[in-house]
């Protein structure tokens, strides 16, 4: 439990804290009122200035958090001061409310006397305040004593008769000449050193008067009354004029921060310049001047020997002078104390931040202080001003933000300042101002960022700002908009390169030069890190070729370095770059193919964790995928090329012996790419046939790694065109095949790429391979295929991006059964599932070109068998039965019933048993397919229609049926729309049938088409031999070419 003494100390500490807070709040309210009072404006501003300066001193108790060190006597003094200030607050409030009714000078005089008394009491109280003896406590005590003496001597008076306007505001009248003459005639006291009064009064106005507040005294009791009177006289009027003009009619702010906060002595001033001396020197006359001023004075005399002291007029025998070391030390000490005091007052002003003018004046003062001594910046940094400046970056005034940025730049010109600002000020705020509409703000922001970018901490901080580096890059690239900012940002980005993470961010935002420069010219560790980044970042379309061109050689050299980490990073980057096909040219020119082949087949590094063979295979596969012809490119010193038996055999052997799925995937990708070239294709097919590689590929179909299974199936599909029957036989000999290639819809939650390529593999194998067809039937695969087709037709192909390819493979697999109908088991299956009706329905309901082509081929194969399967009808008799009529039963006589005959096939037909296209209503859909844009679809549909005009059928009736369906119009469109020889020949064959069997009606339909003759003549002139013969025959039938009898000619 706390003792009574501890409790009492805590209570006093809390009381002191509350007292200071209350005083500051009350003073802020008073100053806000007095700046708006227009009666005796100068006097009330003086009153407010005294209180403001008092608040700056008292704030030391608050800012330094010294409440616990404040004596109890000081707390009582503060309580007394608070009562006086509260009284003043009541006076100014009453004056504000009743100014329109204040008509007597005596009333105003009474109020001013009361306020004058308040200032004196506050001054006396301030002299009793004891500041904690810490760091700056001594300076605070000196400043308080100086201000106290000035406040005790204060005097307010009514300067002139006040006139009341209609709105209740009062104007200020000029001082009367009598008052001025009285002031000038005031008796003057002399100081320790004699000063010419006229020169002093004149030169005082040459001082930087704008840095004085109207009430700030440039001296103390140690200075002469002459200087005090002048500060209240001529200089007072000058400052008031400058102050009012700077506000441009806006609400007034507190006066400017005083330039001289510490007691000032006349001996500090140079008699020639009336400015505080920087380098005091004493001449022969014993008077001290500033070195620069006296040298200039001597120079006026040239080479003359008659030189006089500018102050005393004494003739000088020499131009020499001596440094006044003691005075210089005193002035330097005073400057240091004064600047510290000014810094604290500026901090108080920035903390209060009542008006824009107050902030700007405080910042201006701090900038001036920074320029004077380097150590002043340290004082500003350690006193807590930088956090206040950071908050001002959010200020709504553009001028304040600009001034704040400029001051921060001044403070950041040394390493300590950079670090402090970097850790205190929010980087996003500064970056945000780079996009300001105001040019000066942009320039100030860019200049500050450049200074801060020399700090490693700030570089890392900018990299963490979301979009910060992207903004800098954008500004750098827009030089025409703002060249100054762009040049600064360019330097900033160079400084940011100190952080590898920033370089990565630059590359991600499209600025690749830093990363590539460090990759090519950096030290080993930096090259390694840049290579790692290059392997991680996705290259944009605009940078793919540029990055490959610049980095290829450097990365390939890193592969040869032998350092595992560097090699790993280089492989990763090369794999990324090679994945963009346009980069392959630069990689091949840099020699990457030879290096990767060496890594795959020749180079061996023991105990290297990374599988370089896999990385090399992936890079080589990427390059081959681009389509670059590498068959004849020498890949090793032995003269081998990518199409050599050695290379192909080595790749296939690695597939057989490798247990790494990813390596096998990349090896298969290489083979797939090589299959695009004739020479390498022949070599691959030969090696696969001679070895058991096809078994290995088939076994990989059901590997747990789905990507590997897909790759192996794709290679088998490509090989099927060259060795399809071999693959079909080996597939049937493999356990679980071909049953595993087709799944039931219930087993497929989602159609994947593997489902699609598996179905297409079965569709691409030779359709006539009876062994495979019977294997599919015996393994009950067909019902699963048909169920899957019906399921996709119900759900649509949009359920998966592989649904269309899967559907094409399923239909293609069904078509294979239509090529082996000579087998009774196959025939029974086709009849059982009525594939004729199924293909017709698919043809009507799909928009896929591949499916339409496959369905048309299936209908063609089925229709070719219709003549053989169609039989003459069997005669059968009906049974006798009794029919009740009017309650009696009569017996029907028996009749012979005959089934209707197919007009084309001359027998009994059906879509299910004889596969008749007419019975399946497939002809109309096939005719519609003749208008398709895809040549393969048109060719397949026309071939199916041609089966109805074969010599084995009744051509006369078939032509009649097709004529009724307007088939000739579709065929003529094929002739006009397509120029492929095979289509022209088939179309001419159909047209010839119609001309021969269709009679005058068909001839008329064909002759009426105006475009057909020109198309026919063109084919007659330019077609191949078969096409010309058929065209000539049709032209003769249309009487376009005369028919001559050979007997009319004499040979």
Topology (elements, then pairings):
Blueprint: H1 4-34, H2 41-63, H3 72-98, H4 105-128, H5 137-152, H6 177-184, H7 197-204, H8 225-232, H9 234-247, E1 280-282, E2 288-290, H10 291-300, E3 307-308, E4 315-316, E5 322-323, H11 325-352, H12 356-372, H13 374-382, H14 385-392, H15 398-411, H16 415-424, H17 427-432, H18 439-452, H19 456-464, H20 468-477, H21 483-496, H22 500-508, H23 513-521, H24 524-536, H25 544-559, H26 564-578, H27 584-589, H28 592-601, H29 612-625, H30 645-657, H31 661-674, H32 678-690, H33 693-699, H34 706-733, H35 753-764, H36 770-778, H37 781-795, H38 803-815, H39 824-832, H40 835-845, H41 849-864, H42 866-869, E6 876-877, E7 882-885, E8 888-891, E9 896-897, H43 923-929, H44 935-946, H45 955-964, H46 967-977, H47 981-997, H48 999-1008, H49 1012-1022, H50 1025-1037
Antiparallel strand pairs: 1-2, 1-5, 3-4, 6-9, 7-8
Q: What is the total tally of β strands? A: 9
Calculate the terminal CA-CA distance, rounded to whole Å.
146 Å
Q: Based on Cα principal axes, name the global outline.
A: elongated
Q: Level of helix content?
A: 55-70%
Supply the number of helical segments.
Answer: 50
Structural class: mainly alpha
Query: Strand arrangement, largest sheet?
Result: 2-1-5
Please give the largest β-sheet.
Answer: 3 strands, antiparallel
Low-confidence stretches: 1-11, 64-68, 160-257, 885-897, 1045-1051
How big is the Rg? 53 Å
Q: Estimate the mean pLDDT confidence.
A: 81
Task: Report the sheet-strand fraction.
Answer: under 5%
């Amino acid at each position: 439990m706390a003792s009574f003494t501890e409790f009492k100390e805590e209570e006093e500490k809390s009381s002191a804290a509350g007292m200071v807070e209350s005083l500051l709040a009350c003073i802020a309210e008073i100053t806000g009122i007095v700046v708006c009072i227009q009666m005796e404006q100068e006097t009330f501003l003086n009153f407010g200035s005294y209180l403001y300066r008092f608040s700056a001193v008292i704030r030391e108790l608050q800012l330094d958090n010294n409440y616990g060190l404040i004596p109890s006597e000081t707390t009582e003094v503060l309580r007394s001061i608070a009562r006086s200030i509260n009284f003043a607050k009541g006076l100014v409030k009453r004056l504000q409310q009743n100014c329109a009714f204040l008509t007597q000078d005596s009333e105003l005089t009474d109020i001013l006397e009361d306020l004058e008394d308040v200032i004196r009491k506050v001054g006396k109280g301030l002299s009793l305040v004891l500041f904690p003896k810490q760091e700056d406590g001594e300076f605070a005590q000196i400043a308080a004593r100086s201000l106290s003496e000035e406040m005790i001597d204060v005097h307010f008076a009514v300067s002139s008769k006040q006139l009341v306007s209609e709105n209740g505001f009062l104007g200020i009248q000029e001082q009367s000449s009598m008052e001025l003459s009285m002031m000038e005639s005031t008796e003057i006291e002399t100081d320790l050193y004699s000063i010419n009064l006229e020169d002093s009064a004149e030169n005082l106005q040459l001082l930087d008067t704008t840095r004085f507040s109207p009430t700030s005294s440039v001296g103390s009791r140690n200075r002469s009354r002459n200087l005090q009177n002048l500060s209240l006289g001529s200089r007072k009027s000058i400052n008031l004029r400058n102050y009012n003009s700077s506000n441009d009619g806006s609400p007034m702010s507190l006066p400017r921060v005083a330039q001289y906060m510490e007691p000032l002595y006349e001996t500090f001033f140079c008699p020639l310049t009336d400015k505080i001396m920087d380098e005091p020197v004493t001449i022969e006359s014993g008077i001290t001047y500033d070195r620069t001023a006296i040298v200039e004075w001597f120079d006026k005399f040239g080479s003359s020997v008659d030189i006089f002291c500018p102050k005393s007029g004494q003739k000088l025998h020499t131009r020499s002078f001596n440094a006044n070391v003691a005075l210089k030390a005193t002035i330097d000490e005073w400057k240091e104390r004064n600047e510290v005091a000014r810094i604290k007052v500026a901090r108080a002003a920035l903390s209060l931040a009542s008006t824009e003018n107050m902030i700007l004046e405080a910042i201006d003062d701090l900038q001036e202080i920074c320029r004077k001594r380097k150590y002043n910046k340290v004082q500003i940094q350690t006193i807590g001003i930088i956090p206040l400046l950071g908050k001002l970056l959010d200020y709504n005034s553009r001028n304040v933000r600009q001034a704040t940025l400029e001051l921060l730049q001044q403070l950041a010109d040394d390493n300590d300042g950079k670090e402090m600002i970097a850790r205190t000020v929010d980087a996003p705020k500064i970056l945000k101002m780079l996009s300001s509409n105001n040019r000066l703000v942009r320039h100030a922001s860019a200049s500050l960022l450049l200074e801060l970018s020399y700090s490693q901490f700030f570089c890392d901080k900018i990299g963490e700002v979301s979009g910060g580096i992207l903004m800098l890059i954008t500004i750098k690239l827009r030089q025409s908009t703002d060249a100054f900012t762009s040049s600064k940002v360019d330097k900033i980005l160079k400084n940011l390169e100190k952080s590898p993470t920033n370089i990565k961010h630059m590359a991600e935002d499209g600025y690749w030069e830093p990363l590539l420069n460090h990759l090519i010219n950096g030290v080993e560790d930096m090259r390694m890190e840049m290579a790692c980044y290059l392997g991680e970042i996705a290259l944009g379309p605009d940078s793919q070729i540029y990055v490959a061109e610049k980095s290829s050689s450097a990365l390939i050299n890193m592969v040869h370095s032998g350092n595992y980490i560097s090699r790993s990073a280089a492989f990763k980057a090369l794999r990324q770059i090679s994945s963009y096909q346009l980069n392959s040219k630069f990689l091949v020119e840099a020699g990457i193919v030879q290096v990767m082949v060496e890594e795959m087949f020749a180079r061996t590094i023991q105990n290297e964790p990374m599988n370089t063979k896999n990385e090399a295979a992936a890079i080589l596969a990427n390059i081959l995928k681009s389509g670059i012809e590498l068959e004849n490119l020498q890949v090793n010193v032995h003269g081998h090329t990518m199409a050599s038996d050695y290379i192909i055999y080595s790749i296939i052997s690695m597939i057989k012996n490798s247990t790494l799925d990813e390596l096998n995937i990349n090896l298969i990708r290489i083979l797939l790419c090589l299959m695009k070239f004739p020479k390498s294709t022949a070599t691959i097919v030969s090696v696969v046939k001679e070895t058991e590689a096809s078994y290995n590929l088939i076994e990989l179909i059901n590997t747990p790694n789905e990507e590997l299974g897909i790759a192996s199936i794709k290679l088998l599909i490509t090989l099927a065109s060259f060795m399809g029957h071999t693959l079909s036989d080996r597939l049937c000999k493999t356990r679980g095949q071909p049953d595993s290639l087709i799944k039931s819809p219930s087993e497929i939650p989602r159609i994947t790429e593997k489902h699609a390529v598996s179905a297409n593999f079965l569709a691409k194998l030779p359709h006539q391979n009876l062994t495979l067809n019977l294997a599919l039937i015996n393994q009950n695969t067909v019902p699963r295929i048909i169920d899957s087709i019906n399921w996709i037709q119900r759900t649509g192909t949009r359920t998966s991006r592989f649904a269309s390819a899967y559907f094409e493979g399923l239909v293609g697999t069904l078509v294979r059964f239509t090529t082996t109908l000579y087998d009774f088991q196959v025939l029974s299956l086709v009849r059982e599932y009525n594939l004729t009706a199924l293909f017709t329905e698919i043809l009507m309901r799909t928009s896929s070109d591949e499916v339409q082509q496959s369905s048309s081929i299936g209908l063609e194969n089925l229709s070719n068998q219709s003549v053989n399967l169609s039989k003459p009808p069997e005669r059968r008799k009906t049974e006798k039965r009794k029919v009740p009529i009017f309650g009696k039963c009569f017996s029907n006589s028996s009749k012979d019933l005959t089934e209707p005959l197919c007009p084309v096939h001359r027998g009994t037909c059906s879509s299910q048993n004889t596969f008749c296209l007419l019975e399946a209503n497939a002809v109309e859909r096939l005719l519609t397919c003749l208008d398709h844009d895809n040549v393969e679809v048109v060719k397949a549909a026309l071939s199916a229609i041609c089966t109805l005009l074969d010599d084995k059928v009744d051509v006369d009736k078939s032509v009649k049926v097709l004529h009724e369906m307007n088939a000739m119009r579709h065929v003529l469109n094929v002739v006009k729309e397509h120029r492929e020889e095979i289509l022209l020949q088939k179309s001419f064959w159909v047209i010839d049938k119609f001309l021969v069997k269709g009679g005058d009606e068909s001839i008329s339909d064909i002759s009426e088409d105006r475009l057909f003759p020109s198309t026919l003549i063109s084919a007659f002139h330019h077609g191949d031999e078969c096409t010309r013969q058929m065209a000539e025959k049709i032209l003769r039938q249309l009487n376009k070419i005369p028919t001559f009898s050979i007997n009319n000619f004499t040979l």
